[in-house]
Amino acid sequence: MPVRTRRTLPLNWLGVLPFAIFVTLFLIMPTMKIVVGAFQTPDGSLTLDNIRGLFTPSIMAAYWISIKISLASAILGCIIGFGVSAAVVLGGLPQWIRGPLLTFSGVASNFAGVPLAFAFLATLGPVGILTVFLKTQLGLDLRLLGFNLLSFWGLTLTYLFFQIPLMVLIITPALDGLKREWREAAEILGASGPQYWRMVAFPILFPSLLGTLALLFANAFGAVATAIALTGSSLNIVPILLFAQIRGDVLGDPHLGYALAFGMIVITGIANTLYIWLRARSERWLK
Question: Which CATH architecture has domain 32-114+149-286?
Fold first, then answer.
């Protein structure tokens, strides 16, 4: 008579169980509800009218503004963050700067929402500390110069507070992966510094840079609390339009709100998939 063996879950999987439950309850299930709701009518029947509603001029304009803000903050965050990381890793700055910088970047990359909006309003708002100082002490009126925190560039500047640190955290390991032997070999072959960066370093780092750009884009596109707390309804972007739909202030069809969220999921999903694919390609060189 064959002996029955009882299959048990390995104990080392128990540590992952709380995370799996958390992800299922607060990520997978809400996402599935949004996806299903985007293709349903209020009575539960299937329809494509909610998806068609995304192509109305006002909603398309909101998506376009959100894409431009996300792309602008991602590009600026990549450029500035790369410069900061390169200065620390390759620029010969004292090593004691690296630890505090990475620690601050870890904190600042997660600093968003109402606290971040309040910090920028208190600094660069209409009666912010820096705004008042420039006007009273230096005679520079930011309003007359065309700057408004509650605008496209104002929100982009606010997003840079967490975009730059996130870029620093991601690109620093990639810069650490550049082997000294590659530079020495290029110098032996007669390559100058700019030639080394153009022909060796940047081609190796390019997948990491492009992947990080995609991740920063997704990070900004999905930022909801900061945009709402900072601009309210003065800027027509998708997160604010979605927030208004949830509150029931503007749109009367909740399933159109599901479609708005579904469109955000698709866009951020494409950006994150691109980041994962490009990161995997870059790690082949940096191992």
Answer: Orthogonal Bundle (1.10)
